[in-house]
Amino acid sequence: MSDAFNAIVAPVPLARQGGPGRGVLSGLRIGVKDNIAVAGVRSTCASAFFVDDHPADRDADVVAALKRAGARITGTLNMAEFAVGVTSQNSVFGGPINPWNAARVPGGSSGGSGVAVAAGLVDAALGTDTGGSIRLPASCCGVVGLRPTAGSVSGVGVFPVSPDFDTVGPLARTVDDVRRVFEVLAGVDATPERARRIAAPSPFVTADVDPAIAAALGDVVRLLGEIGYEIGDSPVPLADTAQDVVYTLIYSDLARIHADRLAEAPERFHGATFERISLGRAITADQRAAAIGDRDRFRAAMDDYFAAVDVVLTPTMPVDVPVVSDDPSVLPISRRMGQLSYPWSLHAGPTLSVPVGFHPESGMPIGAQLTAAPGREALLFDVAGAIQSRTDWHLRRPPGVA
């Protein structure tokens, strides 16, 4: 099955799988995105630069934590090259295949992580999320994915995209499994904490949302209201410019991190990766400084916003899961897919993508984002758990998956 879905990059030898057989995650099979180091296993970042021989000499902090908790690290997972891309088709191994429909992308950059969970290859997976790279695959593959509070989970041993925005988080089929893994990664107790006030702003950034996705969110809003949550509108301030602020900072960081590779062997990048990383070379110091100021203003506005709201509900993506395309330029689809995830990356708090239905035309999963103030993951687990306790969207399996 791993070959069929093109998700597993390297199986982890039994001696290195970890898990002494005891611990809070005992027996849980966990796959690890291939930009997160697993000791003794080739770490490629899905790139020709590293594919020949690039073994990790030690576990990333998050992998070590999982092993101490008894988890079995079973394999490393395919991804977009250097975690740059929202379709995951720009991998030296070829893109991972969405098990719901091979003609549709699995999301990215943690595409293999979303695929492996949806296909039942693992019980949970680690991904990284800079602009949506956990949430988008979770949405496209019909699973749950958490972008944790910035700085709450160690990034030691993880190849960076943009240090100010990079996060490491779990994907799993259920909210409870995501919570259990997150507690180990962050070293916290995230027992669900009852949320009261939920904002469902419309529009959040754009009114141009696929009608079926808007309808699915409407159904969730009604469900949450019936459960007893207070539902309001509360538009998110500065959201319309947030995506461009994030792009400016991420692309400038990418150009800096990959400066030597860009100068010495640009032809080794996948074309889609090169297209996006190259954008950062034109960003000036003044433009970066202005974007940092915009980031700080957005985060200050969020402090005020979440003083009045517990959780915000928005679509994870404004469009149906896109078809795999041969178009050499990925910029338009990347911007569209990330239109609602990138703004929440500018926020320092956590965002969770949870399945909320299936598109009536394509049959592909639909995801919703739940977002809270920094350190309030427990609120997200409460609301997402309430959704999963009253629906079966997360229990449905792709064709051929038992």
Can you describe what's shown?
With 402 residues, the chain is of the alpha/beta class. The chain has a single domain, classed as Amidase signature (AS) enzymes (Alpha-Beta Complex), CATH 3.90.1300. It is 35% helix and 14% strand. The chain is built from 13 helices and eleven strands. The chain has helices at residues 2-5, 61-68, 111-118, 135-141, 175-186, 211-227, 239-257, 259-264, 271-279, 285-308, 331-337, 342-346, 377-390, and strands at 8-11, 29-33, 72-77, 124-129, 144-147, 167-172, 197-199, 230-232, 311-315, 351-358, 365-371. The protein has an eleven-stranded mixed beta sheet with strand order 1-3-2-4-6-5-10-11-9-7-8, with helices on both faces. β10 and β11 (365-371) form a beta hairpin. α3 (111-118) packs parallel to α4 (135-141), α7 crosses α9 and α7 packs across α10 (285-308). The longest helix is centred in the last third of the chain and has 24 residues, at 285-308. The protein is globular. The N and C termini lie close together (12 Å). The model has no long low-confidence stretch (mean pLDDT 95). GO terms for molecular function: asparaginyl-tRNA synthase (glutamine-hydrolyzing) activity; glutaminyl-tRNA synthase (glutamine-hydrolyzing) activity; transferase activity. Residues 19-380 form the Amidase domain. This is Aspartyl-tRNA(Asn)/glutamyl-tRNA(Gln) amidotransferase subunit A. It is an enzyme of class 6 (ligase). Keywords: Ligase, Transferase.
